Amino acid sequence: MENCKPVSTPLVLNEKLTKDDGSKEVDLKQYRSLVGSLLYLTATRPDLMFATSLLSRFMSKLSEVHMGTTKRVLRYLKRTLDFGVLYQPCSDSRLIAYSDSDWA
Q1: Average pLDDT score, the chain
Q2: pLDDT of 90 above 80
Q3: In angstroms, rounded to a whole number, what is the distance separating the alpha carbons of residues 46 and 18?
Q4: Would you call 97 exposed, middle or buried from its count of C-beta atoms within 10 A (0-12, 13-18, 19+)?
Q5: Which of 20, 41, 49, 64 is exposed most, by the fewest CB atoms within 10 A?
Q6: pLDDT tens digits along 42-81
Q7: Which domain of life is it from (predicted)?
Q8: For the residues 86-95, what does the mean pLDDT come to?
Q9: At what angle do helices 64-79 and 49-56 cross, to 10 degrees?
């Protein structure tokens, strides 16, 4: 996947993924590993959430179509390596805490 062609969207428009699409089955362990890695990435890449949740529906029964869609998400990642969530430090932050003395 190092020399793959990057794409601008993680999914193909109007593509319908189903459990029984009739194509050849693929390595379940590799698919689960890829989708698990994508799930981990969603913490800092919200743009991957929908595609990853869609792919995770097919963890038990998958085919070449599902693996191809997963590879498309990886190609999207290659194009968008500089995307992410940036937390800026704030100088006027205060920590405020409340407590209920009835339950102490």
Answers
A1: 87
A2: no
A3: 24
A4: exposed
A5: 20
A6: 999 999 999 999 999 988 888 888 899 999 999 999 999 9
A7: Eukaryota
A8: 79
A9: 160
**CB 70, CB 31: distance < 8 Å:** yes
Give me the residue label for tokens 């689960």: 32
- Concatenated DSSP letters for 1-38? -TTPPP-SSSS-TTPPP-S---SPP--HHHHHHHHHHH
**Beta-carbon contacts of residue 93 (< 8 Å; ≥ 6 apart):** none
pLDDT band at 104 (very low <50, low <70, confident <90, very high): low
